[in-house]
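Weekly puzzle thread! Below is a chain. First person to post its structure in token form gets bragging rights.
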Amino acid sequence: MISGPPLTFPRLQENGVGHDILELHVFLGLQAQPRRPGWHAHIREAWDDKKSAKQNLQDMGLAFGTKGLLPINKKSNSEPAGQTSLLKPYVIREMETEANLPRTDKTTCSSDITEFVHYMIREYNEDYKAMARDEKNYYQDTPKQIKRKVDLYKRSHPKEYAAFLESLQAEKSSSLQ
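Winning reply:
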């Protein structure tokens, strides 16, 4: 443990500022990025540092919070809520088009699961109860857990699974002849 007086930052204490990370970066001469919300790139591009967060989001047509978002009037619900003019409507359009893009499944299996599934299917085909009783079932997975692992493998590597089944078919047909 290092002994001695604690580190002090006189310039920070003069200004009455605590140990804020941005002030610390300025004091140390490091490049500090201004604090911006970590949202989508569309919001980041349209963000105006001179406006408050609430005003920025209102300009984009987004809600700052849920409080006061929907008026709850017991007298009459037939009155439409007041629409505010959007200064940056393109942000919502860009976010909607990005949300509507098809997503690719990036799920994958570890090599251990792949080897486990190959062995179990080679030995027992689709008999999950027998798989659960096998001595190579080191983690003592239940039949349902093994089925989930097989399904995960099928989903994440469909071409490899199809090729594996074809090789099994070829092995069985060659062994029968």
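Puzzle host: Confirmed. Bonus trivia for everyone else. The CA atoms of residues 132 and 142 lie 6 Å apart.
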